[in-house]
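Today's session is about reading a structure prediction critically. Students often jump straight to the picture, but the first step is always the sequence itself: look for stretches that repeat, for charged clusters, for runs of hydrophobic residues. Only then move on to the predicted structure, which in these notes is written as discrete structure tokens rather than atom positions. Here is the chain we will use throughout the hour.
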Amino acid sequence: MLDGGTMPGRRAYVEYEIRSIVDAELEGFRRCQGLAFGNDFNPEHLELARQIFEMERSLATFDRGQIVGTSGIFSYEMTVPGGASLPVAGVSMVSVKPTHRRRGVLTGMMHRQLSEVRARGEALAILWASESAIYGRFGYGIATQMEILRVPHEYRDLREDAPVGTGNLRLLTTDEAREALPGVHEGIRQKAPGAVSRSAEWWHVRFFLDLPDSRDGFGANNYLVCEEDGRITGYLIYRRKGDYHDWIPGGKVLVRECMAETPGAYATLWDYVLNLDLVGVVEYDVASSAEPLLWMLQDSRRTKRKRLDAIWVRIVDIERALGARTYQGDGRLVIEVRDRFLEGAGGRFELVSAGGDGLCRRTDEEPDLVMGPEELAGLYLGGGSAWSLWRAGRIAGSEPAVALADRLLGWHMAPHCQEHF
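Below is the predicted structure for this chain, in token form.
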């Protein structure tokens, strides 16, 4: 239940029922989502939704029996720096019916949801933000960034020293991909901070089913693998869209995902897709903020790039989260986290790193650094900058303490998640 209250210039908050839905309420849940996101409700998608929907982890807000707010969770494991996997709550399907905006519906759901995540024993919640101004007030911080890349065909050439040709390429059928790709993905994602696991149901619904109305005008998935020494060391999933202007080919290739274990597999996969015939541009919408492709191209300036926030992290158990990851170097910091949204989650914490192993525990000592949960979340996966946050006035403390935070919490591999949820 959400306590009543008022805000200047807005309607008074009221009390709503917040609870998980049952199967018969899934249609109302999805209709509320559609209204908020501007999508038509499609009854044919209900059965697909049931295959991956976690009913017990859903939350809906009810006003006189009608669903006016929604939120759900997909249960994942996410890799953190050092290779450990933590169970995380993948928050999704967050919506408020347009008639109930600015009434505290979202705040009530977020507080209830984060409290339940912590009670379940998960240290982290993660999400993609539909709007970037929403989730900071609930303690979420930008933990990974991504780039949208557009490589024009005339500037597709790779440098001569790119390690192309170290493996054999093969296109798989859907049945072959279903058998081969999940294991390859799981092996690679366990080494990549920010990457999350996938269930068999998730693979089926989000990749292998490949319904025509989910392709946005492109063709079906193509499943390309690179094999080295008889073993698949990388794969690339792509779609194509043919197009001509005055008999000049200008088709598009959309790369949905690229996972590679070795530099040779990565370069060989990209060399193939960049040199497909009848193509004007290759698009990659989920590139890493440190995508190696940009360092392999002869003229990367010609690639159109747009950097955006990607995964947002909310830490609900700081001791467990900081104790699970590996650190770069030795040192000790006392960090005060001022959490104004989730009672009992903040406080002062001593972080000690020795030989890369970290120990985090509560303390009463004076802090070296003071920050909010969103700033700590931004540093957690190793892709943030304590110095930038300090210069922006979002972290308080001495410059030497900030430098130590960057040295300990940084990571040699930029965190990245290719999974949309």
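Discussion point for the tutorial: The longest helix spans residues 105-120.
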